[in-house]
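Supplementary Methods. Inverse-folding protocol.

Structures were first reduced to a discrete structure-token string of length 294. This string, shown here, constituted the complete conditioning input.
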């Protein structure tokens, strides 16, 4: 690669809101055969909104449970926590006192309140806690998940108390960007920690055929590695702390600009706008650069 061609490309990237940290990645991007997209904040807007609480049974102390939820989520840094906090604060709920708060990566949070342990998170977290989700509740949750909603459960150490469906709309430009990536012969993958029904619903709407859901942060990097072992040259796009190991593992890591600092540090390129169409600009830029080089 001639230094001039690369300098030109880096400059053009900057004009288009693409910060190229590693010039070598321009050449690698040209060879990419697969592109792995994170769901939350990459395909979706990443501004989740909590909906109506579905109570697991009548007669629960709803105000107290809401106070527990608020207190626990106030300790979390997850975007889903923000959605729940916003909803409960709008209802003027006051947080209770929390002890022994713990964040369980890829699953949720737990804490002790007045001597009882509470869990907030996905189905796996309920399973790990030995909490049974009654079939009637599973059915309602599955219906919501099929509508692309993420289901957040809250339980104590014994019983499910409630769940909250959370929506995170798909960005207007995502479907168009996926189509264009496929037109460049890239195999497009959706990779998420969210549940399989939610992931499949999103995938269907943007026409992605390869879906991996309920993937823990450490396994996101493993997924990229598996594709590489199959001979694919992998580009990965993500925004979260969770995505950092996968961004580092990928042949080309692309961070979304509104994402976390850690994601940007792990990536080879950063898109200043959180719009997937800029991935195409980056790939086109790499094609143009390689053409000039040869
Ligand atoms: P992703 O960013 O790919 O959606 P994460 O690994 O961050 O996935 O989270 C996976 C799942 O864990 C979420 O979809 C959610 O169900 C659950 N979760 C994580 N953190 C929290 C939290 N603070 N409150 C409730 N649920 C959470
Ligand atoms: Mg994300």
């Amino acid at each position: 690669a001639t230094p001039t061609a690369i300098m030109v490309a880096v400059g053009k990237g900057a004009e288009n809101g693409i910060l190229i940290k590693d010039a070598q990645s321009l050449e690698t991007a040209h060879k990419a055969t697969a592109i792995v997209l994170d769901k939350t904040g990459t395909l979706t807007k990443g501004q989740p909104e909590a909906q109506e609480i579905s109570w697991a049974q009548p007669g629960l102390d709803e105000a107290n449970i809401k106070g527990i939820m608020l207190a626990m989520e106030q300790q979390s840094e997850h975007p889903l926590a923000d959605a729940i906090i916003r909803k409960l604060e709008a209802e003027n709920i006051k947080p209770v006192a929390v002890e022994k708060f713990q964040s369980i990566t890829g699953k949720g949070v737990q804490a002790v309140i007045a001597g009882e342990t509470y869990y907030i998170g996905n189905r796996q977290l309920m399973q790990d806690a030995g909490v049974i989700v009654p079939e009637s509740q599973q059915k309602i949750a599955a219906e919501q998940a099929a509508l692309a909603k993420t289901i957040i459960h809250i339980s104590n150490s014994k019983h499910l108390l409630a769940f909250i469906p959370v929506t995170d709309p798909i960005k207007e430009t995502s479907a168009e960007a996926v189509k264009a990536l496929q037109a460049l012969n890239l195999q497009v993958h959706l990779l998420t920690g969210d549940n399989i029904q939610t992931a499949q619903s999103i995938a269907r709407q943007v026409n992605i055929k390869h879906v991996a859901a309920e993937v823990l942060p450490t396994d996101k990097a493993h997924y990229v590695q598996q594709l590489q072992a199959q001979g694919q040259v992998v580009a990965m796009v993500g925004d979260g702390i969770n995505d950092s190991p996968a961004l580092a593992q990928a042949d080309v890591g692309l961070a979304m600009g509104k994402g976390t600092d850690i994601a940007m540090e792990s990536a080879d390129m950063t898109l200043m706008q959180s719009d997937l169409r800029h991935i195409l600009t980056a790939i086109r830029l790499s094609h143009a650069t390689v053409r000039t080089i040869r």
